[in-house]
Design goal:
Blueprint lengths: L1 E4 L5 H15 L6 H10 L2 H9 L3 E8 L2 E9 L4 E6 L8 H17 L3 E6 L4 H6 L3 E2 L4 E3 L2 E9 L89 E2 L6 E9 L8 E12 L4 H15 L1 H8 L3 H9 L4 E13 L3 E13 L4 E11 L5 E2 L1 H4 L4 H15 L10 H9 L8 E8 L2 E8 L13 E6 L1 H5 L13
Parallel strand pairs: 9-12, 11-12
Antiparallel strand pairs: 1-2, 2-3, 3-4, 5-8, 6-8, 7-8, 10-11, 12-13, 13-14, 14-15, 16-17, 17-18
Amino acid sequence: MFVRTISENEILPALHLVWEVYVSDAAPLLKPEAVAGFQQLIRYENIVPRIRGGEITLFGAYEGRELCGVSGIDRRGNILLLYIRKNWQRRGVGRQLMQAMYQYCGQVLVVTRMMMRVFPSAATAMNHLGLCDTAPVQTVGPEVFIPMELMIAPGAMPPRREKKKTAVIAGAVVLVLAFLGLLAKMVYNEARDVFQNPYPFDSFGDYGDYGGYGDYGDWFGDDYFDEETESLSGIDAIPEYEEKGLPFVIKEENYLDTPDDKKTTYVDFEISYPQIEGLKDGAMQEKINEELRICAMETVDRIYENPDPEVKERVLGEEYPVIADYVKYKVTYLTEEYLCVVFEDYSYEGSEEAYYVGLRARNVNLKDGTAYEVKDIVDLKDDFVEEWLEGMKSESDSEEILSELDGTQMRKALSGEDTKDGTYLPVFFADKEGVEIGFSFHYDKNDEDDLGYGWVTAPFDEEEIGEFQSENPFWDLIK
């Protein structure tokens, strides 16, 4: 693990990580106005000029090429950001980022203290860790916080140049930097991923109205929150099944590209996808692997290689155009005869505001290469659609989801016959507990029916799906 300053072409992935953790851990506890203010602060087009001007410095913690955490501080010593990726929390990443900022404050900024705002419920813990209250509880706009500070030890400051040569003596000071994140979490009941409901506000105020140096709560994620368990989200929450003793293996391939010849548009891709090795039928293995690669790269093709007209239009109309795609995958079901892979896709399609989260899946018969879709595995009759819609409402925790469609339109969308120009993309996957069927949403950003969900799937166990199963051979592949 190493920590360094973040370069300009790494800013967008860093902001992507910050927003993911913020929406999961901090936003549920805050007023909408505070969340809107934070979103305004970290907008790509807002933060880049401040970084270029030296007003803000971002640090990244890296394990190999993986960005594990992000921190940020302004030139006055105000902590703006400290967010740790979910799978790296409680592993010392936050401590290393804090140490980097501490040294930077003392040696580069030459300030005497670091300042932050703290939830009142976390103030006592912060006091025990060496932070001092500088004022009682404050209320500024939608925020309630206690101002706290950490003094920079003299040994961390560079010696001042004196007019005559003198010895500068500083005592050795050892500081244990440990911080608590949020003391409570809200677990979403919607479709797994925190990015699926990214708090889409219509307008944003000046963040300076909220105190000027960032959100006061979950700078630290839950890196130091002593929990025995942690809720998972997104595809990480899907319970996978893998048959033992398989005669082949699954290996990961990665497509990483940040073209440096793009002078006016930020372009960045990080795509991961699985590949089979050791299948007896070599031709079948090649066919399936290519299908998996194409599925993983689907958005890259649509927004970059062969861009849609609307993507081109956004790029031309933006001062800071962004083309980026980040794809991760999970093998949710694997036997000698059947492979199910889900791909979770985060994309910026021409601008920082044109941000989407999507889900795709490939369900493949490893013997003959057949790829299964929703229309193949269930009979899309009225009783199924009614039962499925109730599951979608339960998973999204919204009675309004899909209210813009009638039963016939839902059936056509689930079958792929009419997806309303790609707004409702049918998806299903198998996992250890059964199958899940739903939509990956791609609403136009001005669509009033958009409730903010990236994807939602309704789960069915073996008993629940039994009465709706088609006669397709797919069901013989599920244990």
